[in-house]
Amino acid sequence: xxxxxxxxxxxxxxxxxxxxxxxxxxxxxxxxxxxxxxxxxxxxxxxxxxxxxxxxxxxxxxxxxxxxxxxxxxxxxxxxxxxxxxxxxxxxxxxxxxxxxxxxxxxxxxxxxxxxxxxxxxxxxxxxxxxxxxxxxxxxxxxxxxxxxxxxxxxxxxxxxxxxxxxxxxxxxxxxxxxxxxxxxxxxxxxxxxxxxxxxxxxxxxxxxxxxxxxxxxxxxxxxxxxxxxxxxxxxxxxxxxxxxxxxxxxxxxxxxxxxxxxxxxxxxxxxxxxxxxxxxxxxxxxxxxxxxxxxxxxxxxxxxxxxxxxxxxxxxxxxxxxxxxxxxxxxxxxxxxxxxxxxxxxxxxxxxxxxxxxxxxxxxxxxxxxxxxxxxxxxxxxxxxxxxxxxxxxxxxxxxxxxxxxxxxxxxxxxxxxxxxxxxxxxxxxxxxxxxxxxxxxxxxxxxxxxxxxxxxxxxxxxxxxxxxxxxxxxxxxxxxxxxxxxxxxxxxxxxxxxxxxxxxxxxxxxxxxxxxxxxxxxxxxxxxxxxxxxxxxxxxxxxxxxxxxxxxxxxxxxxxxxxxxxxxxxxxxxxxxxxxxxxxxxxxxxxxxxxxxxxxxxxxxxxxxxxxxxxxxxxxxxxxxxxxxxxxxxxxxxxxxxxxxxxxxxxxxxxxxxxxxxxxxxxxxxxxxxxxxxxxxxxxxxxxxxxxxxxxxxxxxxxxxxxxxxxxxxxxxxxxxxxxxxxxxxxxxxxxxxxxxxxxxxxxxxxxxxxxxxxxxxxxxxxxxxxxxxxxxxxxxxxxxxxxxxxxxxxxxxxxxxxxxxxxxxxxxxxxxxxxxxxxxxxxxxxxxxxxxxxxxxxxxxxxxxxxxxxx
Length: 858
Prior knowledge:
By secondary structure, the chain is an alpha+beta fold.
């Protein structure tokens, strides 16, 4: 940091600014006081040089002794007090006869404060941090302190070569303007992050734990590569907690060393680690000093088990849940303390949960500070305790964690202070709010949906009441729509999340499906947190859906006997029973070349056009979801289990009836050298209720979401009429299994975020139960009959009967594939590239070996 001052306006300002810390050394000032001044009276003090400060104010700093006399010690004290006010640049005392004369030079008054050269930090932020204020007195030490404060603001934003120079501009009437000139410099990044002493986990793995990142070509899109000492210190704790979670009970992060390289203008950060040994749980016991509380009765709330790897995080959660359960049973002051006895030879820890009666302390008051926008009740409802309740540290810690998870605040801190008596405690909740509104423009592209854009506006703390609201508009190559969402996390003051979604979706025909769909509906829902890792959602859905077709797929524009459109079936089709029937029905061997009209220019499949003829369908469904989540990181998991089970019953009114059940499970486990194994299992079943036939649109449609290497809607039952669009019809049963190994590219910097994957998939989609026949009567050339393969029109120019689709359902075929993928956690959003080769497939399945998808907000 460089510090300097320029003075405009002459010698007086220079003397004011560059005088010794308060004008002259204090010892020199005191030595100038006459030794015989001890008998001076306060009323005999004369004041000179004051312009703004009243005489009586100056005299008030001299405190007389008995009889109103001022001895040498009291004059010294008065002089010190005047200097410490900061109102004066110079204070001198002399004796004139029987008087004590106090001569002062007042500090100038600051007229205005301005900042020049600051582009990255706004004036308002700098003004709020400095101590010098307009209409206040100018103080050189305070200006020096303000310079340091401004420098610290820039250092926290990563600019370490910043310089700040204060300037004084003299104005009339002993007033000055204070100008801070800032040269911001460039951001100071992290050039290297190294780890010393780590054996169990590689440096590549540990870089994924910490928040600090090394600088790279894309660092301008984020800020984690900027050196921040507070962030580095927080990273030490993240590393320590990571090791404690994985059994290293003796771990120590000895130091986080930082070194600045002036040539590269960056920092080198080195974390020194002493891992120690990994421990397992040798035994788990419970001891209760409360006679009426059996400690073993809390065993079911323990998350640690004998033989498992020691996990400090699970131990903390066990203590919290056991203490809360004891409180629910009426032991409000019970305290659970874990005790661990290490066996250094066997590398085990014997854990004992000691349950004791804690001090009888009550919460006198909960003070909330710092919430300028968020209502008090939004904060208080996150507490399971209130004023007058027994003080329970576990419940307070849970409330602090909940407040942080709200994502309304930059900082949340709950502290305690003594109350009005020894058994009372006051909770102070100190908050710093942050912006909770988002406006985003999102863009993406995938081989399935094509180009896609979305504009959305959302607010996580709507009206300061803790409500969530979002409006979004989507427009893409094949998908368009709009949606409104609203969530009240505390519906009717209960810890139940109530939500409502209103949506309109339009799916356009593309290379994978010949038809489009339009859906308009709404869905209210309720969410319950059964446990920290288990949640339940209840929902109701009401939506109207219709199918759309391009005109050319439903035109039936060919007339009887058109010789230019002969029926030329393939040999493979002729050899099937359906093909032979089609040949016989159309008179394909007739030399007149009678064509199979309506299908000859590519009509949509019969089940598709039956959905079109049925018009709009109203679906009214009740459903629920159970979600179990123990993932270590929801965005980039490396360990844990995620299971999602869903059921929906349609038939609560409306035109559609079915029962749909699905289950999806993913299990991540870390292997050697930062390789993560993913096992993914999924299955689903669609059941018909009563005599109501299941619509084609309600069937499961599968492709790369089940087995990679296949096109969207690429597997399962299909209308195989070769003269139509051969649409996928879906199925009522599916299963899928996938095993994947994800591994980093060790030769690339961690900050690039690129990983590779190899995988094998298997699965199947079976049992189409939708419409395959359609009874019609009328002229052969009318559009509604175009789904039929009619009899020879030369013989029978009219048709009355049943149209039958040609459905192929390869129920005995298992689809499988192997492939490789690239996963990029890019600054532009998550991107994935897959190339898969099918090993087994059905005869009419459609293959798509390359697949790409991703997008971002900007």
